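ok trying this again, last paste got cut off
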Amino acid sequence: MSKQKDHNLITPYQDQSSKKEQVAKMFDTISENYDGMNRVISFGTDIAWRKKVLKTVQDLQPETILDIATGTGDLAILMANSSAKKIIGLDISAGMLEVGKKKIAQKQLSNKIEMVLGDSENIPFADNYYDAVTVAFGIRNFEHLEKGLSEILRVLKPNGKLVILETSVPEKFPFKQGYHLYTKYILPNLGRLFSKDKTAYAYLSESAKAFPYGEVLNNKLRKIGFLEVQSFPQTMGVATIYHASKGSNV
């Protein structure tokens, strides 16, 4: 499927339920083996990318952090190494959250990290609530991207910062060609091999290719009202880290 297709229209399953419902169902299904598959399909590089997100967050010295689309809590757990007194992990998949809660309990971080079942497009917190908001590999699963970004802006405190880690598409030869081969053939087959949900990793691959990245996403963030928007491609462009701030008078 071409990159021009609206990413909002790409869903895991071909049924009549909403994208949001389908995404929740998919992640519930793959939650038990999601962490292991992440390491395999990214060759472990996702760990280094998350550490870069942590460094940015640490520099902010936040007291409160919201990690949206937290999944099994990898980034939330990593950010326990920051100055934050409270970290909330928000996700629409109860299955992913249950795996995350076990990991958090094993690391004795339950007093610092709370996992909350909720919708990124209707964030269940007050305006101007968080010093920092993070999203790792989650915004491409939003049903309505602009609504989710607007909600993030709403719950950020004035001068608060958003840090996004998301897949992107390499633009230089030969990485662009290699990426397309990998996402079209290897990634879906790895998913079928290791996952009981045979469509999940095909969806993850397809949504990654269709999602707006780089300056296109930067402009969406600016349109919503974010300031100081920057993007930093990672590993030849297969992922990108975005920084954006909320103004002081919003």
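PB: full thing came through this time. The chain has a mean pLDDT of 91.
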